[in-house]
Amino acid sequence: MNNKFAVIGLGVFGSAIARKLSERGADVMAIDESEERVQMIAQDVAFAVQLDATNSAALESQNLKEVDAAVVSIGSSFQEMLLCVFQLKEIGVKKIIARAQGPVQRKILDKMGVDEILSPELEVANNVAEQLTNPGVKMCVELPDNYEIIEVEAPSKIIGRTLEDIGLRKKYNLNMVTVLKKTTSGEGDEEKTEHHIYGVPEPDSTIAEGDMLVLFGLNNDVNRFIEINA
Hints:
Layout: E1 4-8, H1 12-23, E2 27-32, H2 35-41, E3 47-50, H3 56-60, E4 69-72, H4 78-91, E5 96-99, H5 103-111, E6 116-118, H6 120-133, E7 137-142, E8 147-153, H7 163-166, H8 168-172, E9 175-185, E10 192-197, E11 212-218, H9 219-229
Parallel strand pairs: 1-2, 1-4, 2-3, 4-5, 5-6
Antiparallel strand pairs: 7-8, 8-11, 9-10, 9-11
């Protein structure tokens, strides 16, 4: 049985979530007050409907109580988002995920009992800042309590060494999630470089030049590992 989700607000962010959920086999109901936005996504989701998401009667008519979760991504008006969240709570939607723009909105949504709050702009800012200060970093996901998951190019001083020799956990208090191995195909102008997941690394796994490491740990420990081995 497929999961059922509602995505309310079909801007760039909401539309991307709706399409991605649909690609993964979910039954997606896409909702927006703009007829143009609804038409643009209608072919990509199970059901697309134009309605005012602040109108309780309109929302109740869509049987939203039956969805597994509703994602609220109304970016044009925070007041409209709050009204929509309130109506969804009244209807009894099992799980509500909402997009916050800034700490004040996050705090208000949290007080309203929203189950999960997304801040994509903050995540993008964190990634850009990390990549600018550490050029080897390709991806960084900030987690609660100062933890992070980071994808970083293997520092020069650990090339040719095994994970056991590097001592990620003992020396740096870090866990290796996986390694992305560099592969090259084609020749000349057609040459193409890609990285593929190696799997679960073993203690005797050797780090090669061009490998990307996916690490989990405290921010300070990750930075210390990069600085010492650069």
